[in-house]
Sequence to fold (264 residues):
Amino acid sequence: MGLFQRLKASFRALFPRRYRWPGLDITLPGGQHLHLVGSIHMGTRDMSPLPDGLVTRLHHADALIVEADISGDESPFAGLAMPPPLAERLSPTQLTELQRVAEELGLSLNQLESQPLWQIAMVLQATQAQRLGLRGDYGIDYQLLNAARTQNLPVIELEGAASQIALLRQMPDDGLLLLEDTLTHWHTNARLLQTMVSWWLDSRPVVDKLALPATFSESLYDVLMHERNQAWCEKLHALPAGRYVVAVGALHLYGEGNLPSLLR
Fold:
């Protein structure tokens, strides 16, 4: 990187440009210009269409980078083995708490019996988001993928849906810790979803004043957030020089071990 480019990168680090959405720019030593976007996988009607400035960014990009291309119709959960009954996998206390939350969402335990515990956690989280008015087709990454297809823009996956499911399936005890965290931080997660929606509708987060509530235990945070951020960092550094719009879950851009801090 030449002297001018280094000075410009230093200036941007000291005085980062602010956008109407949770986004920031990072230039890597290899000439990769990244516009990182804090995506929400399910959004509200008011989050569509995407901001004009973000669409313009996408128009001038060489590729869109996402965690996984979710624009297809295939289910990532196909072919999962039938697990034992919930009563054999959960303690009476855990089963009672699961039943309470399921009833709150209008779900029955019979609907969840055939699913691994990590998948039950994901179903609960998705149903909670739906109850808060969020829908998958208003999710930021989904809208970006559709816009990229319209522009015939290449799409690069950081992981892919199959890798994400493989990570969940490797969790100990059928993903019990993810389910426990989901139940423990149930109301906190709802507030966090509303906070992230406000980043898109009202104002993007001010990083130096940002204090996010904990919705994962430390060990789960390491697996689902920090380790993945490290892997993504390596993949982004390996890209050819060019301009990229990179959409990842908003929480990956903030908090301990976040992706921007690793890239820098």
